[in-house]
Amino acid sequence: MTLVGSAATVVLLRDSLAGPEVLLLERPRHTGSFAGAWVFPGGRVDQEDYAAASADANNDGAADGFGDEAHELAAARRAGVRETQEETGVLVPPESLVHVSCWIPPTEATKRLKTWFFLAPAPEQEIKLNEGELMDYAWLTPAEALRRHQEATMQLVTPTWVTLHLLLQDSTVAAAMERAASGKPETFQSRRLAASGGSQVIVWAGDAEYEQNALAAQATGRHRLTMNGLNWIYERS
């Protein structure tokens, strides 16, 4: 199935005695996208976001060099700010968002949205949930969120789980933001392998089984998430 649009996700970070914490939101359990899952703030990129991004480029005199990718990223940044405020009441300065990744679902997914992920320090503002869309919220360290997922007390989806896993290496919000700003945003174009031995496997570029061609047999790399029940293992080599 082809892509049907774009979405934006904002990973809000704050420091704590235990290390950086992220804001996670609980979706309603029986309706809507990612029913019952805990996710980062975010939502779909609207036409108004694209129009506003174009207007910003024109005002800045940058329209001539404004390609499709830059336009889409600018619109996603606007959508991330807007959706975060709508869902949590928190207004994040647009310039504080650092683009870290882009997620593209497997071709067999029923609703394929290209989702842009941003990191941002959390402003010191009170969380006011949109109760029509969300059930609860929590500030958790990545390690605690992953532990709850493994213990079946918190449902996570693949992009959220992998993002949390990658944040385990950061001891402070400043370290996470510096790593994100100095690195190259990565595209996770997901491919699902046939289930084997009770495990589900998703692979990305760099994995020996990602490419389906003659060169794939010569590859030895691993870039995958193996999901055996709630025991999830991320590998990259």
From TrEMBL:
InterPro entries noted in UniProt: NUDIX_hydrolase-like_dom_sf (IPR015797), NUDIX_hydrolase_dom (IPR000086), NUDT19 (IPR039121)
Question: Per its Swiss-Prot or TrEMBL entry, what cofactor is needed?
Answer: Mn(2+); Mg(2+)
Gene source species:
Crystallibacter crystallopoietes
| Pfam family membership, one | NUDIX
| Domain spans labelled Nudix hydrolase | 3-163
Cite the GO molecular-function annotations of the record.
hydrolase activity, acting on acid anhydrides, in phosphorus-containing anhydrides; metal ion binding
Q: Does the keyword Hydrolase apply?
A: yes
Put simply, this protein is called: 8-oxo-dGTP pyrophosphatase MutT, NUDIX family
- Keywords of this protein's UniProt record, alphabetized? Hydrolase, Magnesium, Manganese, Metal-binding
State the superkingdom.
Bacteria
